[in-house]
Amino acid sequence: MRGAAILAALTGLAAPAMAQEVEVYTLYRSNPVDRLAAEHVATFDTRQGAEANSETCLTVAGLLEAQPENDRRYWCRPGRVAGGGATD
């Protein structure tokens, strides 16, 4: 019985943390040398929530792709940087 109470408490603590991660958006770019690499550019994690973070990420991606000298592709994914490093 005590184990069930501990499990319920831990689950209750984990749920808000997982819900918060969905509000974060991360901007990536392609690598011209390694076509399979996804390089981390920025992470958007504001108090305004998922909609604002997604919109800002997509706006920045569009502005970067529109640069005349740009030879990379930019995209956004929900959540923090995959793998916790500079590249994915």
Describe this structure in words.
Residues 1-19 form the signal peptide. Keywords: Signal. This is UrcA family protein. It contains two helices and three strands. Strand 1 (25-30) and strand 2 (38-44) form a beta hairpin. With 88 residues, it is an alpha+beta fold. The radius of gyration is 17 Å and the shape is flat. It has helices at 2-22, 50-65, and strands at 25-30, 38-44, 74-78. The protein has one domain. The longest helix is centred in the N-terminal third of the chain and has 21 residues, at 2-22. It has a three-stranded antiparallel sheet, with helices on one face. The termini are far apart.
Describe the SSE topology.
Elements: H1 2-22, E1 25-30, E2 38-44, H2 50-65, E3 74-78
Antiparallel strand pairs: 1-2, 1-3
What structural class results from the helix and strand content? alpha+beta
Shape: flat
Q: What integer is the average pLDDT?
A: 80
**End-to-end gap:** 42 Å
| Low-confidence region ranges | 4-20
Biggest sheet overview: 3 strands, antiparallel
Helix content range of the residues, please?
40-55%
Give the domain tally. 1
Strand content: 15-25%
Strand elements, count: 3
Q: Can you list the strand order of the major beta sheet?
A: 2-1-3
Q: What string, H for helix and E for strand, traces the elements in order?
A: HEEHE
Rg for CA atoms: 17 Å
Q: Tally the helices: what do you get?
A: 2
Keywords: Signal
Protein name: UrcA family protein
Signal peptide: 1-19
Organism: Ponticoccus alexandrii
Question: Key terms for this structure?
Answer:
88 residues, alpha+beta, three-stranded antiparallel sheet, 2 helices, flat
